Each structure stands twice: as C-alpha cells, then as structure tokens.
Automatic annotation (TrEMBL):
InterPro entries according to UniProt: Ion_channel_UNC-93 (IPR010291), MFS_trans_sf (IPR036259), UNC-93-like_regulator (IPR051617)
Coiled coil: none
Keyword field contains Transmembrane: yes
Transmembrane segments: 21-42, 62-80, 101-121, 127-148
Top-level taxon of the source organism: Eukaryota
Any one annotated GO CC term: membrane
Keywords: Glycoprotein, Membrane, Transmembrane, Transmembrane helix
Name by which UniProt lists this protein: UNC93-like protein MFSD11
Amino acid sequence: MCVGGGLFGFITKPKTSLGRVRIVFVGFIVQLVFYYLVFINFPSDAPANETNKETYFNYKLLISQILTFVGSFLIGLGDCSFHTQLFNVLASQYKNTSASAFALFQLVQGGTSAVAYVYASSLAVEYQLLILVITLLLSTIAFFVVLFSNANNDLDESSSLIIG
C-alpha cells in the first residue's frame, strides 16, 4: 500500500512545513478523487448485500474494473502521504515520548475503525462516503493546525535563543 506513498515522499523529501503541506494536500485531493470513483462505481446498496442495482453511470465491466484498480492505487497513495507526514510530525513533536504518542494514535485509529465497522453494513455508500469526506476534511485541517503551531513554536524558540 505504501510503496507509491513512500516513493512520493522519497522523491519530494519535504524538509519544511510547506513541503509537508504540499504532500498532505496532494493526499487530500487524491483521496477525494478516490471517494468520487467509489461513488460512481458502486451502487448505493452495495455494503448491505449482493446487488444487481445499476450504478450512477452504466460502465462496461472492463471500465468498472479499471476504475476499481486505479482507485485502489489512489487510496494507497493518499493514505501513505498522510501517514508518512503524520508520523514525521509525531516523531518530531514528541521526541522524548514518541512511543506514547504513537500508541495514542493507534488507539484512536483503532477506535474509529471499530465504529466504522459497526455502521458499514447498515449505511448506504453515499452516507459512508459523506462521513469519510467530512473526517478527511477535519483531519486535514487538524494536521495543518498542529503543523503550523509546531512551526510557530520552533520559530519562537529559535528567536528567543537569538535574542536571549
């Protein structure tokens, strides 16, 4: 899953907050494209049971399979771009307690996955995608807030060292 994201991070080598913003923003856009592909490629009752219901666009089977494989790559790339930058920020912000920070991250991620597992078979695809888009938007905003507050703290510390 993270091969494309790892190559993306290796090629761009973000050293500044602006570089991280670019990678996370690209991941955000790529995941939105994936959610759109799911929306047009799967019928609304697909999570509940097997279905013969038509999708929004009547694609031939080959086109539908191509969209599915392209979407698989896109979600892996988008997810990796988020995770690599998130791990980087966690490791740099919590240098002395990184194990605790990563454990807390895994706890929250596992809890939200459990909640998604509970509603997955009862909600239509559209509502699941709406939940995903809202959480994607909120998590991207939260990442930027943490990243820029960390960057401002680094600037404050370096300026106090210069002045003091």
